[in-house]
User: What shape does this take?
Amino acid sequence: MEHLTALRGFRDIYGEEIERFTLIERAARAYFQLLGYKEIEIPVLEKTELFKRSIGDTTDIVEKEMFTFTDRSGDSVTLRPEATAGIVRAYLQASLYAKERASRLFTVGPMFRHERPQKGRFRQFYQMDVEVFGIADPMADAELIWMVFLILGRLGVTNYTVEINSVGCRGCRDEFRKALVRFLESKKEGLCTDCAGRLDRNPLRIFDCKNAACFDAITDAPVIFDYLCDECRKHFDDCLGRLGAFHVPYVVNKRLVRGLDYYTRTVFEFTSPDLGAQKAFAAGGRYDNLVEEMGGPSIPGTGLAIGMERLALLVRELPPGQTPLYFLARVGEEAEAWLIPLLDAFVSSGMPLAYAQPARSLKSQLKYANSLGADYALILADEEVSKGIVLMRDMKDGTQKELPLDPAGLPRLVKG
Ligand SMILES: [Zn+2]
Ligand SMILES: [Zn+2]
Assistant: This one.
């Protein structure tokens, strides 16, 4: 019988890649903790309505990419395509706004989008997501960007750019929208059917369109940046000032808009030329109206997501294993009886002790130890047992020394 395979765009992550994931997560968690972020787990499955209301009905995500289905109760449910909507829902459901002035939350986990699978892009993909509620000041935006800058520094990732822009507030966006629609009306012929259809409903989406004709059509289009009201302009300048104080280099990209409706003011992306066409590996922005639009009080928010798959591609070197690997080779029945006491003693002391099962010849066990990359082999035959010793062999130079066969003391002794 043929074995089954995973669904298209879904995959298993193991070996070196999962080590990279762990490395990234560990670096990120260190800074999350230093900066006061609290972990939250939210469901992967939510009411479809949640994403329609937050991300926006006319976005690519909601129109084309969500895993939406009717469950056995007849309800429309959706696998989360991103984490912000669910965290806002949780924030409101737990009334966190009534309990703390500012909330800093993070979550790590899989997201789901029905996109065409391509390099570094999958239908189930992993994100680290960070959200800040209750801080209107641009300091919160700058701090988020700085935090990613620190995480990347710790991971040794250097070939990237921070692109930043402002998409304004409701007020300045209305002015801009009028100007944009006026401009696009004149180009309507050249637009793809999606964009032509969206012209009235959501003209801003055209900036996200991957269609070459649309890209050409907007080369001279007005940009929101030139329509910012005084307050939005000040917010943006303040944010840039803070980034300067944090020594985070950035590039203002006036064409940067994110593919979700809820963003206001600051939006940003971390991009790397090493990733090809899909060059963003972390992105986010401010969403000062979202909490209110989701039925809550008027509370500002800002956040970001880091794409694990794409960042993993940028992490070049895995750090070498820190603790040396020990291997126990045992020959004979009496020696075999020491396996469990020694394994227990090593692992309880926080040290690894590998072994072969079954224990064949000494030669084959040492060969296996080599294949595992063991630094030292502890060799125990019935002869050593009767003398109350164990041999420790340095696998690199083959030198050996005798140590007393005392499980409780051995882990300390082998460390030398
Ligand atoms: Zn404004
Ligand atoms: Zn288009």
About this structure: The chain has a mean pLDDT of 93. DSSP finds 17 helices and 16 strands in the chain. Residues 343 and 353 are 6 Å apart (CA to CA).
